[in-house]
Amino acid sequence: MPLVSIVPELIRARNMGYAIPSFNVFEPHAVDGLISALQKSAAPCIFGVYSGCLKEANIRAFAAYLRERVNQLEVPASIMLDHGENLEQVQLALDLGFTDVMIDASRLPFEENIAKTREVVQLARHYGAGIEAELGHVGLGDQYNQFGGARKGFTDPRLVAEFLEKTGVDFLAIAFGNAHGEYQSEPRLDLDLVREVRDKVSIPLVMHGGTGLTDDQYREVIRAGISKINYFTGLNKAATARMIRAAAEPGATMFGILSALREAYEETCIHYLEVFGAAGQASSTSQAR
Ligand SMILES: [Zn+2]
After folding, report:
1. Which of 21, 101, 146, 222 gives 81 a disulfide partner, CB atoms 3.0 to 4.6 angstroms apart?
2. Does the residue 21 lie in any domain?
3. CA 251 / ligand 1 centre spacing (Å)
4. What is the mean pLDDT of each run of 10 residues along the chain (289 residues)?
């Protein structure tokens, strides 16, 4: 199974009641850990590349590495631009062979979000790429008590149908008490809002700010109607802790520390592929085809 757009896999996830993770990768050791996790879990997945990485000098080489590794996988996997800022950045991602893109114009007023998202949809369609947008605004965990925890930025369910009709995106990130990074206090998620939006739309819904929930909370979020979960902060924490341990070992080496990064990705990704219900879904997909 080569590199694919994740759209058909997300539709299947929505119908079957599981979620596909987007794990962010920044360099080859993390990629190797995630690849190993996908092989062991037989799961579909998204390799998320944060928009900031597209500004780095090595992005062409890194994208080529990612394409090569993902193309060798036997499970369906996508390379996706995470939080694309503008049309130029989306164009670059598509030229680099990314199979899905997110345009995040969620800070803009409703009509401007529509206009900017629409431009991206028109461009990305030529490449056969899937498109994610964000309606409502998912804030930061360190401002949680003033923002997401106070119901600020929440997706207005009355606007969803119009947004989808005018933009034609394939999947949609919504804000319902979720937040990027570490939550300042207990996440207060409005699952009734997720269910309300899910019942109004036929496309998959996305949760950003996945880190910080219990495994049972993830299962509830997925049952309520989320089909894609962006997960990174927990990977960063797990990898950092493990690399610090490796560095403190007698005779520590660079190789040992980098292996710790790879192992932390592998273990953490295996865990969440299982919790999200994605594990095993790649083999059943190929049988169904
Ligand atoms: Zn995000």
Report:
1. 101
2. yes
3. 38
4. 91 97 97 97 97 96 97 96 97 98 97 98 97 95 88 94 98 96 91 97 94 93 98 96 98 97 98 98 61
